[in-house]
Amino acid sequence: MDINFTTPTIAPPGSNCDLYAHHGTARILMPLHYCIVFVIGLVGNLLALIVIVQNRKKINSTTLYSTNLVISDILFTTALPTRIAYYALGFDWKIGDALCRITALVFYINTYAGVNFMTCLSIDRFFAVVHPLRYNKMKRIEHAKGVCIFVWILVFAQTLPLLINPMSKEENERTTCMEYPNFEETKSLPWILLGACFLGYVLPLVIILICYSQICCKLFKTAKQNPLTEKSGVNKKALNTIIFIIVVFVLCFTPYHVAIIQHMIKKLHFSDPLECSQRHSFQISLHFTVCLMNFNCCMDPFIYFFACKGYKRKVMKMLKRQVSP
């Protein structure tokens, strides 16, 4: 369907334009989605954390980055019950602006801490496979600790302003929380969000693709030089892990950031406010793509499953011990 951006019939931000007209459907589908994310995400990440704690003496840089990824996901799941209630009530936040800000803080910390630690994992694997002589085990683990601290400080610094600015807004007999229309009138918002998309998505994606493409080249080269390596299936498992990580990253994070980028470009290109139908379509796309992005919380334990040796065996052993009389 063609969209005419020059149509003079425009609904400015302050006019009678209900951006939550889809609340009847959303109040069923979104709570259902987040209930699934809550159960799978919490159980999966807790299992991963328990296995890590039980084997903390054998920790390396890979498990350290994975641990931080798991912790950020567990923190995220603790905020989901309030979001589930919010969506079930038809985008109506009943528990105050302070908790709305904290929920927003936890949401963005999980999102971009997850992106950063997935990027760290790709860089770590790049050095381990392509340049193994440059990093011995002790140097890699000490370096990884410093990187993890830096990532958390960086993410907190980026998201702490959310505690300063109001994140809730009264409109149409409901109080919305952490919704784009609540702060869309900020003049510099398009540039801020475009910059955030570049630093939080485009740059990490480029790094991940470069690192894993170099790893694949190294694995293929090794297989040619040593046929026994190919027969052992080690390379195939490594390639499957790489494909899984890239697919998860692209499927979970790309739709949301593409939606943000294209909408911000429209706002910069067209000086007049967008039509109500366009703004409503963008709001629906945000709700859908955010759900998809948050599903990453359920997939991270599987990344740990593929990346860390013996994880499946350790989980099964632990579960058998729990059910045994």
Automatic annotation (TrEMBL):
It comes from Equus caballus (Horse). The chain crosses the membrane at residues 31-53, 65-89, 101-123, 144-164, 191-217, 238-265, 285-307. SUPFAM superfamilies: Family A G protein-coupled receptor-like (SSF81321). Belongs to the G-protein coupled receptor 1 family. This is G protein-coupled receptor 183. GO terms for biological process: adaptive immune response. GO terms for cellular component: plasma membrane. It is found in: Cell membrane. Its main location: membrane. The lineage of its organism: Eukaryota, Metazoa, Chordata, Craniata, Vertebrata. One of its GO terms (molecular function) is oxysterol binding. Pfam families: 7tm_1 (PF00001). Residues 44-304 form the G-protein coupled receptors family 1 profile domain. It is a multi-pass membrane protein. InterPro entries: GP183-like, GPCR_Rhodpsn, GPCR_Rhodpsn_7TM. Keywords: Adaptive immunity, Cell membrane, Disulfide bond, G-protein coupled receptor, Immunity, Membrane, Receptor, Transducer, Transmembrane, Transmembrane helix. CDD domains: 7tmA_EBI2.
